[in-house]
Amino acid sequence: MALIILGHPDWEKSLANKEIVNGLVNSEANVEVRNLQQLYPDFKIDIKKEQEALLRHKNIVFQFPFYWYTMPAILKQWFDLVLEYGFAYGSTGDKLKGKNFIPSFTVGSAENEYKTLGEHHFRIPEFCKNLEQTAYYTQMNYIEPFYFHGTSLNAGYTEEEVKSKAKRQAGKLIKLLKTLE
């Protein structure tokens, strides 16, 4: 069973992330989804409930849209509060040791915009160092991120294109989760 920590700040308007999560939920993969924005619209995260959810699962998927070169605020708040000293790190903080840390996100812009001479100057993996370090620091197994570009309808991508890419990403995640069981 896998835990999906969903950090989308506007779930009702989501296209790509919703398609990915629905693909996981409607598959043979056994998943629990924690939609942070629905659970904690006031950002007052129940630390103990979230830690209990983490303890129930070996595979943790962090699903979110890539916002301003990082994760949305609700997911950052979750990391700041839930991965606390004595639980996730520190002399007695080994509760996540050996669990799989699986980043899965969507990027609005085109892939060619994320390169040294592109509009955003860096490639996507360079923006993921904080995720990798978090996994390392909490003794989790970092799985290379699942992501795809071109989810912004404002940038000219069609709804069908975005949904098709999202379905492929969901399929890749399902395949990974099966191999990690």
Describe this structure in words.
The chain has 181 residues and is of the alpha/beta class. Helices cover 38% and strands 17% of the residues. The protein has a single domain, classed as 3-Layer(aba) Sandwich (Rossmann fold), CATH 3.40.50.360. The chain contains seven helices and six strands; from the N terminus they run E-H-E-H-H-E-H-E-H-H-E-E-H. Strands 1, 2, 3, 4, 5 and 6 form a six-stranded parallel sheet that branches. The N and C termini lie close together (8 Å). The relative contact order is 0.19. Keywords: Oxidoreductase. InterPro entries: Flavodoxin_fold, Flavoprotein-like_sf, KefG/KefF. Residues 3-171 form the Flavodoxin-like fold domain. One of its GO terms (molecular function) is electron transfer activity.
